[in-house]
């Protein structure tokens, strides 16, 4: 819980009253490995903060899923386009490890926006983080090689990447598992 407060306090000061209002709307949820947090066709109802764990975003395909994002400890995670538009998601979100999330519902976040002085700053910070990650991913796909995308992921969270199956990493960087093996051999 304090991780979330410290996260926000990197950008702005939270009064105890504002923190209490926000904190009172959060629920802590523990999920096992391989738990589906959001299915295609469902409307995302939670903005979540990962206390511990790794999640992946993917589109299921017949042969291999298309993994397009990962989220790690101390980051926000949400099917954010569905969360904002209140329309069904067209992808899945799944835990790759045992995962602990602090969640706030869409309706409760709207109350925080209205009832607190700091609510909009909290929402803006979460949405900016999610937007920046999406933008960085798009630019990476357009301008970097698969090897560079792998190295970036490895640099971002070297201690956690060991928890992600290679087939998901290969999909994320846009290559086959065999091509990823060649990349890994070349850079080691």
From TrEMBL:
Domain Cyclic nucleotide-binding: residue ranges: 26-112
Q: Which InterPro entries match?
A: cNMP-bd_dom, cNMP-bd_dom_sf, RmlC-like_jellyroll
Listed SUPFAM superfamilies: cAMP-binding domain-like
Q: What Pfam families has UniProt attached to this entry?
A: cNMP_binding (PF00027)
Q: Tell me which PROSITE patterns the record gives.
A: CNMP_BINDING_3
- Going by the entry's taxonomy, the superkingdom of the source organism is recorded as Bacteria
Q: Where along the sequence do coiled-coil regions lie?
A: none
The name on file for this protein is CRP-like cAMP-binding protein
């Amino acid at each position: 819980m304090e991780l979330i407060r410290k996260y926000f306090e990197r950008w702005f000061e939270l009064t105890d009253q504002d923190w209490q209002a926000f904190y009172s709307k959060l629920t802590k949820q523990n999920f096992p490995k391989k738990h589906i947090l959001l299915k295609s066709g469902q409307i995302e109802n939670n903005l979540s903060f990962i206390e511990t764990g790794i999640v992946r975003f993917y589109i299921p395909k017949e042969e291999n899923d298309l993994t397009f994002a990962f989220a790690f400890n101390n980051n926000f995670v949400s099917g954010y386009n569905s969360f904002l538009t209140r329309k069904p998601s067209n992808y899945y979100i799944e835990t790759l490890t045992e995962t602990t999330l602090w969640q706030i519902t869409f309706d409760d976040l709207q109350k925080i926006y209205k009832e607190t002085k700091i609510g909009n700053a909290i929402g803006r910070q979460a949405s900016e983080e999610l937007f920046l990650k999406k933008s960085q991913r798009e630019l990476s796909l357009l301008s970097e090689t698969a090897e560079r995308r792998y190295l970036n992921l490895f640099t971002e969270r070297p201690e956690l990447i060991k928890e992600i199956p290679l087939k998901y990493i290969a999909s994320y960087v846009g290559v086959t598992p065999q091509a990823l093996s060649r990349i890994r051999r070349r850079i080691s």
